[in-house]
């Protein structure tokens, strides 16, 4: 049985259109009044955008309805879908906790409220009927001030039961103005023993070699093999893994054709750089993890052996997977019957 690890999924983008539509129908019909039927809404929600900025705008729609009260509702549906349709054994869910707090509060009050959000997400993610090992990655955000981002790092350090790492998100072209700040925040996180990833080298405007040494994994990173392959040697030496999310680049206008990813995979394999295949925003894209795998095979971007290598890499680079092996090797002993059981089964068939 193949069970998968998902390392890069945003809480905001994880709501599939049907679940969001149902939620609006039940609770805020005014937000969908301009759509006459579901298919129109689905089309609006999932259609490609021209730029990463336009694409990220959509997240605010979902963020506005993901509050203390509604998070358990959305997370329950997220885990149910991930367990039943995606065969996930492991899921790292990422989001900016500050953006789930009420906007009318002061900055200090919103910072205080973030702990509650982390607890709610943590408790809601533990569902005995859908037993996926989950952990949270807290995203610093390029539009938020230094104090808030520092508080996000502190929160990660103080809640290691629920949180496995920090990230930076919100559009990689905006880091340039505050590069020193990001370096100091990552430094701070490392000193507190917090693991690190970051949205970097996703678009051509988001290439900052200065930040690379601070990351254990690289969120996207596709511009490294595409534009700066000379950096791959150091990426391999540092043991960094690229979190590649194939559908995203078509939805954000970063790539025109999914086949452009062949160069990304080829150069990484050649340089010994690990890749974990991820969904980023499975809901927003309406593309679940097994379909990301299948697409890459269909377009001959990777073969089955390379797919397996990427799936192994995902478990190896998972920040909170508690075992040394993939679940398949753990399950093998359970599922492979002993020789005398096989004989007994053959008796039945007579
Ligand atoms: Zn992302």
TrEMBL record:
Gene Ontology biological process terms from the UniProt entry: adenosine catabolic process; hypoxanthine salvage; inosine biosynthetic process
Cofactor: Zn(2+)
EC numbers, comma separated: 3.5.4.4
Top-level taxon: Bacteria
Record keyword Translocase present: no
Hydrolase recorded as keyword: yes
Domain Adenosine deaminase: 5-320
Gene3D superfamilies: Metal-dependent hydrolases
Enzyme class name: hydrolase
Alphabetical UniProt keywords: Hydrolase, Metal-binding, Zinc
PANTHER family: ADENOSINE DEAMINASE
Gene Ontology annotations for the cellular component aspect, listed alphabetically: cytosol
Full protein name: adenosine deaminase
Molecular function (Gene Ontology), one example: adenosine deaminase activity
Family: Belongs to the metallo-dependent hydrolases superfamily. Adenosine and AMP deaminases family.
């Amino acid at each position: 049985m193949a069970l998968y690890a998902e390392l890069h999924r945003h809480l905001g983008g994880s709501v599939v259109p049907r679940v969001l539509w149902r939620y609006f129908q039940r609770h805020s019909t005014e937000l969908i009044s301009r759509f006459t039927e579901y298919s129109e809404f689905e089309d609006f929600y999932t259609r490609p955008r021209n730029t990463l900025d336009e694409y990220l705008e959509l997240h605010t729609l979902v963020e506005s309805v993901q509050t203390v009260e509604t998070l358990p509702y959305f997370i329950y549906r997220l885990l149910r879908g991930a367990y039943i349709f995606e065969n996930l054994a492991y899921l790292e869910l990422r989001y900016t906790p500050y953006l789930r707090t009420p906007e009318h509060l002061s900055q200090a009050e919103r910072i205080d409220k973030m702990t509650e959000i982390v607890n709610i997400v943590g408790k809601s993610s533990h569902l005995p009927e859908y037993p996926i090992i989950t952990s949270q990655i807290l995203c610093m955000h390029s539009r938020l001030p230094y104090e808030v981002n520092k508080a996000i790092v502190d929160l990660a350090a103080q809640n290691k039961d629920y949180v496995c790492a920090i990230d930076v998100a919100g559009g990689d072209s905006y880091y340039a103005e505050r590069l020193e700040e990001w370096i100091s925040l990552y430094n701070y996180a490392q000193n507190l023993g917090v693991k690190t990833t970051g949205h970097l080298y996703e678009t051509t405007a988001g290439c900052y070699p200065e930040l690379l040494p601070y990351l254990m994994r690289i969120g996207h990173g596709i511009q490294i093999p595409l534009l700066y392959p000379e950096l791959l040697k150091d990426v391999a030496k540092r043991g960094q893994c690229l979190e590649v999310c194939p559908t995203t680049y078509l939805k954000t206008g970063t790539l025109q054709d999914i086949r452009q990813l062949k160069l990304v995979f080829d150069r990484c394999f050649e340089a010994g750089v690990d890749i974990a295949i991820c969904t980023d925003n499975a809901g927003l894209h309406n593309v679940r993890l097994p379909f990301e795998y299948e697409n890459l095979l269909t377009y001959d971007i990777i073969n089955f052996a390379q797919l397996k290598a990427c799936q192994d890499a995902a478990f190896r680079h998972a920040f909170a997977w508690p075992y040394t092996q993939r679940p398949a090797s753990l399950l093998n002993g359970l599922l492979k019957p002993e020789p005398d059981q096989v004989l007994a089964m053959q008796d039945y068939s007579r």
